[in-house]
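Much of our argument rests on the idea that a fold can be written as discrete symbols. The amino acid sequence and the backbone structure tokens for this protein are reproduced below:

___
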Amino acid sequence: MSEVHGYTDVEKQRVLLNDHQERHFMSSDVVRDVIIGVSDGLTVPFALAAGLSGADVPSSIILVAGIAEVAAGSISMGLGGYLAAKSEADHYERELKREQQEIITVPDIEAAEVADILAQYGAEPHEYGPVVSALQRNPRAWVDFMMKFELGLEKPDPKRALWSALTIALSYIVGGMVPLVPYMAIPMASHAVGASVALTLVALLVFGFVKGHYTGNQPFKSALQTALIGAVASAAAYSIAKVVKP
């Protein structure tokens, strides 16, 4: 092993990695769940409240209906998040067992697949040959390599399903209560709807901006798109209620 300026190659690599800090945003599953919950929470109850306001019902009725929708919506969204994460975990386990079996029953084919994957990255046979041999000596690493690079699967957190359900449900509640706040303070729905629209659009703009900032998209564009979706949904609900009202 060579030495460079007093460091071995391995030590030099460690020093370089410690000195270099990557500044990439890793969009985690939690962030995704918060975005799903808040965006739906802001939009659906907002449209419901606007629609009922168009039907000229009292604020108290809109508030009761809105709270009921937030409760039902949070449970439904949370359950959907739980089932999605659980399905993802079950799929990973099935593929993991299949790969574990294949490196035993068809090791030559699996080794050829490793070589093919490395070749796609520009490695030559004399370069990827030792890597293939090293993986064959370490079945656990071999399976892990195939899961990541052949199937593109990462091992999910065992608690992911429960945390996903709770995160989406709570985020939905937080978002869903925003358009309902004016109806708690203003008895007349015809007056409360204007305040609800203004408050919710501001919340949608702020949420869209933050979402765009943390997901690497253009914040202002994300803010406008998010607010536009909410505005269209509420306007459609309000207009339909006005049309079909007896």
Residues 182 and 195 are 6 Å apart (CA to CA). The longest strand covers residues 3-4.
